[in-house]
Amino acid sequence: MPVPQASLLQxxxxxxxxxxxxxxxxxxxxxxxxxLGIFMQPLTQDIKxxxxxxxxxxxxxxxxxxxxxxxxxxxxxxxxxxxxxxAGSLFYIAGLALMAGSHGFLSVMVGGGVLVGISLACTAAAxxxxxxxxxxxxxxxxxxxxxxxGAGSLGALLSxxxxxMLSEGYGWRxxxxxxxxxxxAMIPAAWYAGRVDRIPLxxxxxxxxxxxxxxxxxxxxxxNPSFVVMTVAYFVCGMQLVFLTTHLPSxxxxxxxDPMLSAQTLGMIGGFNVIGSxxxxxxxxxxxxLALLGGIYIFRSIALAWYFMLPPTPAATLLFGAIMGFLWxxxxxxxxxxxxxxxGLKWQAMIQGxxxxxxxxxSFLGAFGGGLLYDALGSxxxxxxxxxxxxxxxxxxxxxxxxxxxxxxxxxxxxx
Length: 416
Prior knowledge:
By secondary structure, the chain is mainly alpha-helical. It is 79% helix and 0% strand. The protein has helices at 5-12, 16-34, 40-47, 51-79, 81-100, 105-123, 125-135, 141-151, 155-170, 172-184, 186-193, 214-222, 225-254, 259-284, 289-309, 314-326, 331-343, 348-377, 381-404. It is globular, with a radius of gyration of 20 Å. It starts with a helix and ends in a 12-residue tail after the last helix.
């Protein structure tokens, strides 16, 4: 039920260091990752690798992130959140530093692909949302998840313009070194967020997963039809978003637009992310979270079709960034809140990671598939058309299933 503003602040005050730490860690983790596309053109031209080589590294990053996310979530149950998040922050620093010093494809792949992918599994949305969910009571959980997700969206406002400015003034290597400096701040943020390990879990209700093994928890999750549909539809989310973060700077450069426009657009996305995340966190406290997810996918697809069907202009590009930003990380509080409602808190990070694997398969297709189609056809037309078609299909199916089959735990969970 909605909580008055004064009461909400009073409820959150004891856990503010945890929530602020999780927000800073998330904003840097996501902001740096979302801004890597601004280095694609200068990096590939300087070290003589192709666009598809760079996008393959980003695709591998997304696969590593996605397939290691359930493992990172399961390890938090054994070792605690602090250990996993601090280790992930160190992987981020190492990956960006290796990428900054790269002279060929292998170091871009290992640094920007594998190491950053490992880090994201330990520091990005699934872990940060699980920390926030555990730190607050259920009565304000969705709203708080929206606030943390919104705060976590500010990173692109800082990292994209900073990276572009350093890259234009001093070269792409200095731009990436600037990213390394920002990544160092993730360590104290992760340390403070790790205080959540001291908060005891509430006793699980009869319809939540309690003390059991990771394998049994995963089996229960995939026996829930609502979770399965959400997971499948999550594929189109990853495909659309990573296609944009990876290829929009290249698309604007091909169209002869000012290089700074791509950084401004990514910053616009980050700014409106804040509004959208807070709104959808608030909305998820009141309406069907899974139906809201489907609506996000549908409206994103409409925005993609509108933008790419018209010749790009600075005004249209910035407006497109604002629309996509509003619809961007709003999925975070909705997915996290839905998983917590369906299965409880103990295995939330792992189960959310299982759903996220589908998201990252879509991210792989959006990054690498977009690069392959561009190299083969010389344009992004086919890539964005595929993204629009799959997004509309996934969104419609998600909304229809959410409205006609309410989400909830399957009967066999009672036995768990």
